Amino acid sequence: MTTGVAYSAEVTAAMWRRSLLEIRRVRGGMLPTILAPLIFLLGNSGQFGRLGSLAGFPTDSYMAWLLPLACLQGAGFAGGAAGANLARDIEQGLFDRLRTSPAPRPLLLAGPVVASMTRSVIPATAILAVGLAFGTGLSGGVLGLLALYVAALGTCMAAAMWGCLLALRYRTQQVGPLIQNGVFLAVFLSTAYTPQPLLQGWLGTFAPYNPFTYVLELGRQATVSGVEPSWAHTWPGLVAIAGMVAVLGALALRALGRIGN
Amino acid sequence: MSAVALERRPAVQARVIVALAQRALAVQLRRAQFLIPALVLPLVLLAVIASGTSAGRNLPGFPTSGSYIGFVIGGALLQGALLAGMTAGTAMAGDIEGGFFDRLLAAPVHRASIVLGRVVASLVVGAAQACLFLAVGLIFGADYAGGVLGVTAAVVLTAMVAGAAAGATGALALRTGSVELLRNFFPMVFVLLFTAPAFFPRQLLSPAMHAVTRFNPLTYVVEGIRAVLHDDRALGSPAAGFACAAGLLTGATALAVLAMRARTRGA
């Protein structure tokens, strides 16, 4: 008989493999997670590109400023899909069958969350490749690139927890747009368009309280020359990710515990 | 009176158009999921862009007339109009999938009236939405030097774009009958929006985007909206805006009518 840890790993891996099957089964399913952030990246770069010439902007290239945001958006949408898929499984009754299995309940969420993190590498990389093809440089080198992928995976994990929370709470596929709009809003209500010193009005007050502001700073070490790779630009993002995952994960587990009671 | 005679009486068909428009409006009001994207998303984006990019005012060459939110609200009006039109097309595809459309075809109703009913409903939604957005803008500091006349002209322009979008998406719905396809078309709204100077002056866009905007009719509509709202012809040409909006509305409605003919021929 396998030990507790080995059994948990086995169940998580099985759930992970099942969730990854979505990539093959739903051909083109990843496309919206790539397309929407790309449209925003290219569209916003075209519209607001001149903002990069303002005094106090940490890079001359506005696309370099927006590119990490688009990568995080794509990863976040991939994470949100974990919630949408869970809602589908709940509606179709598959989740009830999984709940009756001897697998510990938290593992039923761990598998899809880890799978969505694996999937999120696809949109993050595709969007990064397009940004690089449009002339954005990797000013942060390997360390910066590593920071960007950590930020993308963290965003995906938080978005997946958020999606699972809503799916378990409402138990209907109609919750899909709410999951994605939540991700969209959370990412944009930050230093998405301009750095903190240039933010004016209510967003200037709100952005410092949004954890995504710090996750973005973590990711921007890859492409923004004025945000060079350093521990000072890294730890706030890591704390923000840990905080979001802890809070949303705890809420999702609470909602999971309430199912069937 | 025969069904054919009924179909040829303009007064009867006018009543049919009004009735179908009323039904479309009632369905949209009843189902919040149809209204929320067209109402909430543009307002949220307006709030984020108005605050997040307002430092752009300090760029040399940025127009000085009106407040920043008053400048970018033109983009929000366009976005709302496009989304309203898109929901109309999705609702039409839903009618086709759900079988209501077949029942309409069996009634003594002129085929064009079915399309016009949907377009008229979108004109009303677009106008109501524009009034709401402009009021929200006013509360948050926008000023409209163009006065009542300017605001009315902006509302009419927005409504025409919503009608045009309903015609175009209606044509797609009639050709495909697929709600799924219409939903997948959603990103096109942002492509159309971003390839026009929706939120920033044309002269301050990136060179590549500047070149593209010339070919997007919505460029002239949004510049027309700004010109009438701020009573400043340097921001755009109202005549060009109205000409483009009218062209889009007529063209898209004609496309939808043609798609309707093709669909009923195939039936």
From TrEMBL, chain A:
Compartments where found: Membrane
Primary subcellular site in the record, as a coarse category: membrane
GO CC terms: ATP-binding cassette (ABC) transporter complex
One Pfam family here: ABC2_membrane
Transmembrane among keywords: yes
Keywords: Membrane, Transmembrane, Transmembrane helix
One function term, GO molecular function aspect: ABC-type transporter activity
PANTHER family linked: NODULATION PROTEIN J
Full protein name: Unannotated protein
Organism in which the protein naturally occurs: freshwater metagenome
TrEMBL record, chain B:
Key word Membrane present: yes
Entries under PROSITE patterns matching the protein: ABC_TM2
Keywords: Membrane, Transmembrane, Transmembrane helix
UniProt KW Methyltransferase keyword: no
Gene Ontology molecular function, alphabetical: ABC-type transporter activity
GO CC annotation: ATP-binding cassette (ABC) transporter complex
Domain ABC transmembrane type-2 stretches: 33-263
TM segment ranges: 34-56, 68-94, 115-142, 148-174, 181-200, 239-260
Subcellular localization(s) per the UniProt record: Membrane
Pfam families linked: ABC2_membrane
Membrane topology, from the record: Multi-pass membrane protein
Predominant location category: membrane
Residue stretches in coiled coil: none
Protein name: Unannotated protein
Organism of origin: freshwater metagenome
